[in-house]
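Try this one yourself first.
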C-alpha cells in the first residue's frame, strides 16, 4: 500500500470518530502528520466527495458518502435481512441490548443491533455500530478469543492492545494472566459473561456463532445491559435464548454470500 493511500485511509478512520468535524491542526497532531500534508489530503478527499469543510468554523467533516458505501455493501451481503429478525426476537425475550459482531480477518466488527429495553435504565451505545470490538474487555471479544489457542488469542490481543483506550471497566483484564483465566472460564461455560469490564456499570454475555457446514466461528451474538439489572443470576436464565439465537444465526448464514466467503475449515 502506498504511503499516500495509507495516510488518506488513516485520516478517514480518524474522522469517523469525529462526527462533529476536526481541524487540520488536530488531525495533524493526532496522526503525527505535517499540517501541509493533511491539508492536501483533505482537499483531495473533498474534491471526490468524502469530506467537506464547515465554512463557518473551518473544520472538516465526513460526508455521508463513506457511510453509504458501507451500508450498500452490507445490503448486498444480505446480512441485515437474515440477522435482524433473530436479533429482534432475542431482544424481545431478554429486554436488553442485543448485538451481532462478525469476524473480519483478525477483527470483530459490530454490524447489527436490536434494543429490547423500552423504558428505564438501558445501555444504548449507537456510536459503536461499525466499530472494531475490543477483544480483551468485551464479552463478544472474550467469547471469540476462547475459540483460539492461548497463543493465537494472546497474539490477537497484543496486536490490538490489551487495555481498552477509553474508560475500560475496573474488572477488565489488565495482564495476560488475567486474560487467560477469563478465556479458560469461557471455554468451560461455553459462553462468556462479564460485568464492569468493557464499560463501568455494564454487564454482558456472548455466544460464538459457528458455521453449520464447517464449525468455524463466523461471529458473535451478545446481550448487554446495566449491571444492576443484568446480574449473574439473570444471565443464567438467558443462556438458552442466547444459545438458540446463535444457532439460528449460524443456520441463517447459509443464505448470505458474505458468510460463504469468510467461512474456513477449523484447524
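Now uncover the answer:
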Amino acid at each position: 500500500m502506498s504511503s499516500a493511500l495509507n495516510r488518506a485511509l488513516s485520516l478517514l478512520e480518524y474522522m469517523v470518530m469525529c462526527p462533529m468535524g476536526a481541524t487540520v491542526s488536530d488531525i495533524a497532531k493526532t496522526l503525527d502528520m505535517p499540517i501541509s500534508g493533511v491539508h492536501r489530503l483533505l482537499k483531495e478527499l473533498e474534491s471526490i466527495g468524502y469530506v467537506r469543510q464547515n465554512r463557518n468554523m473551518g473544520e472538516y467533516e465526513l460526508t455521508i458518502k463513506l457511510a453509504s458505501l458501507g451500508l450498500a455493501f452490507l445490503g448486498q451481503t444480505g446480512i441485515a435481512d437474515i440477522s435482524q429478525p433473530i436479533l429482534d426476537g432475542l431482544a424481545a425475550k431478554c429486554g436488553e441490548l442485543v448485538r451481532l459482531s462478525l469476524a473480519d480477518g483478525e477483527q470483530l466488527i459490530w454490524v447489527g443491533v436490536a434494543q429490547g429495553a423500552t423504558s428505564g435504565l438501558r445501555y444504548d451505545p449507537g456510536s459503536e455500530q461499525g466499530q472494531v470490538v475490543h477483544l480483551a474487555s468485551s464479552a463478544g471479544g472474550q467469547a471469540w478469543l476462547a475459540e483460539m489457542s492461548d497463543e493465537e488469542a494472546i497474539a490477537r490481543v497484543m496486536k490490538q492492545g490489551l487495555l481498552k483506550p477509553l474508560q475500560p471497566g475496573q474488572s477488565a483484564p489488565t495482564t495476560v494472566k488475567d486474560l487467560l483465566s477469563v478465556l479458560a472460564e469461557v471455554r468451560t461455560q461455553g459462553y462468556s459473561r462479564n460485568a464492569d469490564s468493557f464499560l463501568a456499570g455494564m454487564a454482558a454475555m456472548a455466544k460464538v456463532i459457528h458455521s453449520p457446514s464447517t464449525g468455524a466461528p463466523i461471529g458473535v451474538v451478545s446481550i448487554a445491559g446495566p449491571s444492576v439489572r443484568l446480574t449473574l443470576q439473570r444471565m443464567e436464565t438467558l443462556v438458552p435464548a442466547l444459545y438458540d439465537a446463535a444457532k439460528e444465526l449460524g443456520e441463517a448464514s447459509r443464505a448470505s454470500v458474505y458468510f460463504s466467503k469468510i467461512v474456513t475449515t477449523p484447524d
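Discussion: DSSP finds ten helices and seven strands in the chain. The chain has two domains: 3-63, 78-262.
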